[in-house]
Design a protein that fits this description.
This protein is α/β, with parallel strands linked by helices and 330 residues long. It is 45% helix and 21% strand. The strands form 3 sheets. A 6-stranded mixed β-sheet has the order 3-2-1-6-7-13, sandwiched between helices. It has a 5-stranded mixed β-sheet with strand order 10-9-8-11-12, with helices on both faces. The two termini are 26 Å apart.
Length: 330
C-alpha cells in the first residue's frame, strides 16, 4: 500500500477493557481486524469511576502503533467496551469522545458496557438473551427496542451462580463440615484445606484481600470436580444453574423465537454445571432457541465498530449500556 493510499484509508478501533487490561483491534470495514494488541494493566478506578486519563495513557500509543501496523491512515470510528461502564462510566462518557477526537482523529464513538459487547459478540444484532459468566455473572437481553439486564451486582450483593458464588458456597460447605453443622461436606473440607490451609485461618487471609471475588472463584473448579462423588457439591452446581436460568428468564424477550447463548469461562466447568443448566433453561425458556456463542466481547466490539462505521448500527442505544454520542467534528 502506498503512502497516499494509507493516508486515505479510514479504519476502526475496537477496545475491550477488563480486569486483565486492554485488548485492542484496528481494522477496516469489509476487511475485518488487521492488527491486534493488548496491555496487561487494568484501567484504574477512582472517585470519578473509571479513570479516562489512565485509559488514554495506555490506549493512544497502542492505537497509533496498531494503525501503522494495519496500514490505516486515520481512525474514523472507535468502540470501547468496558467492565463497569454502567455504574462507573460517567467520566468516560463525558471526556472520552472528545479526547479520542483530539488524539486520534476519531469522529464516530460508541461506549458499551461489557455485557453489551458480550451479547453482541455472542449473537450479533438479533433478539435474544445472553448469560455471561466467569468470576461474576450478568444476563442481558434485547428485543432490539431496548435492553434488559439482570444481576451483575458483584460478589457481595449478587452475581448469583457465578464462579465467585460457586466457590463461596463450596467453602461454606467446607466450613460447615469443619464446625460439625448440617449441610457440610467432608470432601470439600479436605479440598479447601489443600488449597487454602487450615479453615480457621481462612477468614483472616481472605477478607483483607482486594481480589476476594477471584479467590472465591478459584475454588469453583474444585466444587465441580467433586460433584460426581459429593451430593453437597452437586447441589451447589444445581443451585448455580437455577440462578443462571432465573436471570436468563428475566431478560429474555417473551415473544417469537429469541436466541439464547452462554458465554464466559465458567462454562468450562462442563457437565456438572451444564447438565442442570440445560434442564433449567428448557423448563423456564421453552420458546428460546439455544445457540452457540459466535465470539467473545472483543468480537462484539469489532461488530459494533463495523456497523457504526457503516451507519447501520441496529442495537438500541442506552446512556448507561450503549452510549453513542453525536458525531465529533473536525
Amino acid at each position: 500500500m502506498t503512502g497516499d493510499a494509507q493516508a486515505g484509508t479510514a479504519g476502526f478501533l475496537a477496545v475491550d477493557s477488563g480486569g486483565s487490561g486492554l485488548r485492542a483491534v484496528v481494522g477496516v470495514p469489509g476487511r475485518g481486524p488487521l492488527a491486534r494488541g493488548e496491555s496487561g494493566e487494568p484501567v484504574r478506578t477512582g472517585p470519578r469511576g473509571i479513570d479516562p486519563g489512565h485509559l488514554l495513557e495506555q490506549l493512544v500509543p497502542m492505537a497509533r502503533a496498531l494503525a501503522t501496523e494495519a496500514g490505516v491512515g486515520r481512525l474514523e470510528t472507535a468502540v470501547l467496551g468496558a467492565a463497569g461502564l454502567a455504574t462507573l462510566g460517567d467520566a468516560l462518557r463525558a471526556e472520552l469522545p472528545g479526547a479520542l477526537a483530539r488524539h486520534l482523529g476519531v469522529r464516530r464513538v460508541a461506549l458499551a458496557a461489557d455485557a453489551v459487547t458480550a451479547y453482541t459478540g455472542a449473537l450479533g444484532p438479533r433478539p435474544g438473551a445472553v448469560v455471561a459468566a466467569g468470576t461474576g455473572l450478568i444476563a442481558i437481553g434485547t428485543d432490539l427496542m431496548g435492553w434488559r439486564r439482570a444481576d451483575g451486582w458483584g460478589h457481595l450483593l449478587g452475581d448469583c451462580g457465578s464462579g465467585a458464588w460457586i466457590g463461596r458456597a463450596g467453602l461454606e460447605a467446607a466450613l460447615r463440615a469443619h464446625d460439625g453443622r448440617d449441610g457440610g461436606s467432608a470432601l470439600l473440607l479436605a479440598r479447601a484445606e489443600e488449597a487454602f490451609g487450615p479453615m480457621a485461618e481462612l477468614p483472616g487471609r481472605l477478607y483483607p484481600r482486594s481480589d476476594r471475588a477471584a479467590v472465591l472463584a478459584s475454588f469453583a473448579p474444585v466444587v465441580a470436580a467433586c460433584a460426581d462423588d459429593d451430593p453437597v457439591a452437586a447441589g451447589v452446581l444445581r443451585a448455580a444453574a437455577r440462578h443462571m436460568a432465573e436471570s436468563a428468564e428475566a431478560v429474555c424477550p417473551p415473544g417469537g423465537e429469541p436466541l439464547l447463548a452462554l458465554t464466559g469461562g465458567l462454562f468450562k466447568l462442563g457437565d456438572p454445571l451444564l447438565v442442570p443448566l440445560e434442564r433449567e433453561l428448557s423448563e423456564r425458556l421453552p420458546h428460546a432457541r439455544r445457540v452457540r456463542a459466535e465470539g467473545d466481547p472483543l468480537h462484539g466490539c469489532v461488530r459494533i465498530a463495523t456497523d457504526l462505521a457503516r451507519d447501520v448500527l441496529a442495537l438500541p442505544g442506552d446512556e448507561k449500556l450503549l452510549y453513542v454520542p453525536p458525531l465529533q467534528r473536525d
